[in-house]
Design a protein that fits this description.
single chain
């Protein structure tokens, strides 16, 4: 599956009218404030909301030790709140990240152990050969992916179609909201599911006479096919398709 593009890149591809439509639907701005706002400001505000969704998910997934290390590294003031309480730590880290933005926060974080801890907490796969810069890029992409999924899935189907229209994406008239959402956040044509090939109905014949695996698949249980394999000296390991293939090969050799 393709990865989501950055929020800024996604929104910059939309016309000002569509951006306003999105802003009103998400209640980012009131109708009267949209009359004077320009595209650059709208893109910035909407991108920030997408990031906030991703940051919220990230901080919720962080373990308490990771949150504590981040707060200690950045010398975050907990004021009168309990510095060992996970809810307090989560809120402080969220406030800091959302205030300066994901990219700026990751750039500011020079502790390689913290970045590694973030990847571990989010179950991001990486290798020892990956540099801190590459790990930060993975964390940033995770935040963008999740934030964009949440944000755009909250939009109505018509709004998503308008977004896809501005991007000139193909197959945008589908009624599947998940596929349309995925297309918009990845800025790629809407995926059309492949039609399943019609399976020709067959007539049941005894297993020993079946030369077509479709006959066996349609008319016999896996246990029946495995019993037949065992009776005829064939291995019984594998799934139903495997048993059908073994049977057909044996019949063709006879």
């Amino acid at each position: 599956m393709a990865l989501a593009q950055s929020p800024n890149n996604i929104f910059n591809k939309l016309k000002i009218e569509t951006l306003k439509e999105v802003a009103v639907e998400r209640k980012t701005h009131e109708d009267e404030t949209l009359e004077k706002i320009n595209k650059k400001a709208l893109v910035k505000d909407l991108s920030h909301e997408v990031e906030c969704f991703g940051i919220k998910k990230l901080t919720q997934m962080m373990k308490r030790n990771t949150l504590q290390d981040i707060c200690d590294f950045h010398e975050i003031d907990h004021k009168d709140n309990n510095p060992n309480n996970k809810a307090v730590l989560t809120k402080r880290v969220y406030e800091q990240m959302s205030a300066i933005g994901v990219k700026a926060w990751l750039s500011k974080c020079k502790d390689e152990d913290i970045i590694t801890q973030l990847c571990d907490d989010m179950e991001i796969e990486y290798t020892e050969a990956d540099s801190p810069k590459e790990l930060k890029s993975m964390v940033e992409q995770y935040i963008f992916d999740f934030g964009a999924q949440v944000f755009f899935n909250k939009l109505q189907l018509k709004t998503l179609r308008d977004c896809a229209g501005d991007m000139k994406l193909k197959n945008r008239n589908v009624n599947s909201k998940p596929r349309l959402c995925q297309a918009v956040i990845t800025v790629s044509d809407v995926e059309v599911p492949k039609k399943k090939k019609a399976v020709k109905k067959t007539k049941k014949v005894p297993i020993r006479r079946a030369l077509d695996k479709n006959v066996l698949m349609q008319h016999y249980y896996a246990s029946e096919l495995k019993d037949w394999c065992a009776e005829n000296g064939l291995k019984t390991s594998g799934n139903k398709k495997s048993s059908c293939r073994k049977n057909c090969c044996l019949q063709q050799r006879r």
